[in-house]
Every structure is written in C-alpha cells, then in structure tokens.
TrEMBL record:
InterPro entries listed in its UniProt record: NTF2-like_dom_sf, SnoaL-like
Organism of derivation: Dactylonectria macrodidyma
Compositionally biased region (Basic and acidic residues): 208-221
Record-given protein name: SnoaL-like domain-containing protein
Residue ranges annotated for the SnoaL-like domain, each copy included: 133-190
UniProt xrefs under Gene3D superfamilies: 3.10.450.50
Residue span of region Disordered: 208-228
Amino acid sequence: MSGAIASKKGKSEWHYLVILYHCVVPECAADEPGKKGDLTTLDNLHSTLGFPTSPYHNPDLKKEEEEIFDHYVRWQEFNDNRFATNPEEGAGFYDLPNTLYYDLMGFIPRGKFQKHFYHIGPYFAKSTIGYKDMEIIATAPDWGYCNMEQHYFGTSTDGHEFDFKFRYTGFLRKINGTWKWIQEHVSFPANIATQKADFTCNQDAGEHLKMKDEDNEKRDAGTGTFSK
C-alpha cells in the first residue's frame, strides 16, 4: 500500500451495509444515502478517499490493515443488526478494561469504559452506521489506527430520532490474535464564535475560526481565498 492509490471519483463516498431509504435530516440527500458505497476490499475503500492516501502505509503490514478493515466491517454489520439485542457481542470488539474513550458527550477514562459501554450502547443501539473518508494504517504487526467521518442515525430507546455526523479516530491493538479497540475519539466541528457544534460535520474550518461570528469570511470554492 502506498500513497499512489488515488480516488476513483475525485470525491468522498459514504459506505453503508444496507441501502438507506430514510434519513432524519435533509442534508443526507446530498450524500446519496441510497447507495451502499464499497466495503468489499481495503483497496476499494481507500480509493474512495476525497484526498490522497497517506504516504506512510507500510506494504509489509498490508495484511494487518486488511484485518483492521475487517474489524470495522464486522462492527458495522453487528451495529446495524444485533446491537439492540446482543450488546455483549459488541463488547468483544474492545479491550474493555483498558479502553480510553473521548465520547461526543464527554471523556471516559480508562477503567470506566465498560460501564459506559453498557449504559450508552443500548440507548443508541437501534441505529445504522456509515463510513466516509476512512483510512486504515497499521504501524506494527499488533498496532494500527483508523481515521474517518461517521454517519450515525436511528431511534433511541425513548423514541427520539437522532442523526449525527462526526469525526472519528480509533486505535487498535492485536491481543492474543484478535484486534480490539483500546482508544477512540469522536467529535463534532464547532463554530468558535458561537460555541455551537455542527452535527452535520459539513462546515468549513476556515469559515468558522474567528472569535466574533460577524468577522468570519466565506471561502471561494474556485480559488480557495476568503472574503466577506
């Protein structure tokens, strides 16, 4: 694997395991939610990045990257189909006692994640996950990480529809032959001036950096320059 793998379409692509007919927010339509994307192979996944792949992929660790890729595909299949009825299966994807988690709602320190998993997991368990701009890099035969944007939507146990898109980074360790998460970080981009998060993950970082919102500028799509 090297940075030579280029995007097939020159733009990002969402990946789902099921064909989606419904999203809670209108922004979904722009992301073509009715299409599955391509989670058949790691190379196909990386070819749908909206930017160049990292030059730091090690060809000798391609097998490990494919194993990590399989970990995420299996998690997606589990989440979409069995999380609501069998959360214990999901716990096996983690090294629960040693997982550090930066959740959307707050920080979960090592040693407390197991309780958090069984508290928050069932609440959002009736859900579907999508992956975009997902890149997997193995750094050693037993270490690797993944960056992406995730789409997470469904219905909570108390009947509320939810629909989030957020940034994601996950770190994995191969323990006794099995890849497990040991740290995850999820977050929304925010407008610095208003201190409000963007639950659609669509905002331009350069357009939301000023301390006063009225001082923020718009980026020209063609030139990339900023102006009022």
